[in-house]
């Protein structure tokens, strides 16, 4: 007769020790060892696997945890790869060069960072996807900023801040809808409550970017004319090149799935490239553009460097790291390290601020240890939801905390899904952009401050 399998017990002390070792390994290797995140993640992967086996988990349990961790990331991985193709296709079609030329004439070098934040936020609210925002207008803003002499790390931080501002507040964003669903709220009620933390954080973020702005300098008239002439010789610089952007916007408004939207954007871009782009032999170039990305030969070193990117291969490093990180996260869940720590947080919850703090810590911890945006909202949300109900606290407070400390904060984790995507798509050398992504950095602090204010008001009432 088969006996029921008993799950090994993991104590709080063991769980905390594992987390400390994990963070020390990741932080030490990435920050001090200057290693790519892949290396320490592989090391942690091995340590977790053998520790789990030593604790009494079977290899089937360990393999199952890895599979369960990676499975939710399969669709995002495909989206990653398609975004790589979209980027190279948009450059080939002239979409990115056209927006660069038009945008360069509008944006002031003295307000580059504020412009990057506001434009990214506006586009993000319209399309409802931080990834689409960063892979389209984000690349354009990085190009304009570089041409104006702005620090690319500053610009990247402003783009990320704007994109994830929109990711929280756009009615089209899947994360906003997921948060509302977790709290069983109408989307409008969730978004209204978010404004309590969003507005002050936005004001602070804009003030900081205003202080950092002003380091850029516009090109001289002759240099700008030379750039436009050079771009026109290699790319289609015309409103026609903006058609793929219109297609992506329409698909977003129609709430088409991300994969369908990206495929239509790629198809439209490649058709425009073949039909309208200067030169010949475009059909033969398509396989290389899709696989290896677009290679610019404008003749201006800075422009060629910025316009040579995209393709499936450009996302392979990011994709491999996401697979490793999600597998590591799956192990942490299967070995009950996450659940042990989160459940013990419940013991300290005696007030609204402490409940919000515990929820925020849970979301941030899932982000750091697993790196998956959706899980950083779902796991703490399902864990703490009964406590919000028991303490008669409106579920909109919970959903606001999940959005602020879960969804937005994910962009600050270099080995997480969003952080990996940002570094790969914007062509950054490292994760220094995190230091200048002020909006997602301030948001979790603001959500705790607001909860303290709300608690004091409720006591007075």
From TrEMBL:
Domain Na+/H+ antiporter NhaC-like C-terminal: 168-450
Membrane-protein topology: Multi-pass membrane protein
The organism's place on the tree of life at top rank: Bacteria
Keyword Lipoprotein: no
One Gene Ontology cellular component: plasma membrane
Subcellular location: Cell membrane
Key words of the record: Antiport, Cell membrane, Membrane, Transmembrane, Transmembrane helix, Transport
Main localization of the protein described in the UniProt heading: membrane
Regions that span the bilayer: 12-32, 39-54, 74-104, 116-141, 153-173, 194-212, 232-251, 258-277, 312-335, 433-453
One of the record's GO molecular function terms: antiporter activity
InterPro entries per record: Na/H_Antiport_NhaC-like_C (IPR018461), NhaC_Na-H+_Antiporter (IPR052180)
Family listed: Belongs to the NhaC Na(+)/H(+) (TC 2.A.35) antiporter family.
Name of the protein described by the UniProt record: Na+/H+ antiporter
Gene that encodes the chain: nhaC2
């Amino acid at each position: 007769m088969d006996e029921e399998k008993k799950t090994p017990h993991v104590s709080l002390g063991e769980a905390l020790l594992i987390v400390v070792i994990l963070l020390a390994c990741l932080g030490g290797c990435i920050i001090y060892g200057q290693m790519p995140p892949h290396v320490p993640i592989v090391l942690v992967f091995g340590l977790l696997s053998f520790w789990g086996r030593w604790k009494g988990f079977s290899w089937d349990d360990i393999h199952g945890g890895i599979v369960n961790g990676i499975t939710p990331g399969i669709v995002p991985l495909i989206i990653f790869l398609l975004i790589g193709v979209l980027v190279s296709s948009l450059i080939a079609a002239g979409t990115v060069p056209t927006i660069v030329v038009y945008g360069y004439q509008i944006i002031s070098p003295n307000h580059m960072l504020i412009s990057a934040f506001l434009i990214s936020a506006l586009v993000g609210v319209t399309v409802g996807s931080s990834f689409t925002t960063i892979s389209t207008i984000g690349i354009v803003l990085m190009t304009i900023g570089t041409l104006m002499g702005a620090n690319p790390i500053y610009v990247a931080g402003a783009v990320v801040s704007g994109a994830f501002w929109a990711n929280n507040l756009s009615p089209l964003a899947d994360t906003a809808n997921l948060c509302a669903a977790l709290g069983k709220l109408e989307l409008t009620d969730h978004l209204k409550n978010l404004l309590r933390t969003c507005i002050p954080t936005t004001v602070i973020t804009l003030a900081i970017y205003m202080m950092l702005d002003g380091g850029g300098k516009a090109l001289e008239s002759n240099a700008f004319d030379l750039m436009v002439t050079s771009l026109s010789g290699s790319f289609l610089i015309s409103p026609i090149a903006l058609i793929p952007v219109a297609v992506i916007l329409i698909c977003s408004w129609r709430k088409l799935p991300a994969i369908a939207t990206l495929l239509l954007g790629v198809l439209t871009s490649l058709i425009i490239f073949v039909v309208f782009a200067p030169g010949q032999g475009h059909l033969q170039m398509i396989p290389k553009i899709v696989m290896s990305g677009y290679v610019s030969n404008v003749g201006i070193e800075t422009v060629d460097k910025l316009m040579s990117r995209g393709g499936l291969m450009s996302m392979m490093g990011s994709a491999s790291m996401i697979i490793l990180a999600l597998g590591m996260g799956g192990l942490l869940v299967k070995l009950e390290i996450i659940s042990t720590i989160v459940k013990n947080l419940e013991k300290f919850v005696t007030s609204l601020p402490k409940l919000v703090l515990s929820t925020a810590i849970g979301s941030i911890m899932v982000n750091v240890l697993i790196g998956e945006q959706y899980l950083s909202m779902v796991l703490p949300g399902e864990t703490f939801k009964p406590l919000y109900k028991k303490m008669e606290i409106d579920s909109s407070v919970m959903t606001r905390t999940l959005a602020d400390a879960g969804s937005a904060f994910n962009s600050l984790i270099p080995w997480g899904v969003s952080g990996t995507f940002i570094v790969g798509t914007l062509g950054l050398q490292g994760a220094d952009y995190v230091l200048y992504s002020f909006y997602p950095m301030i948001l979790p602090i603001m959500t705790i401050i607001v909860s303290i204010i709300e608690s004091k008001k409720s006591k007075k009432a």
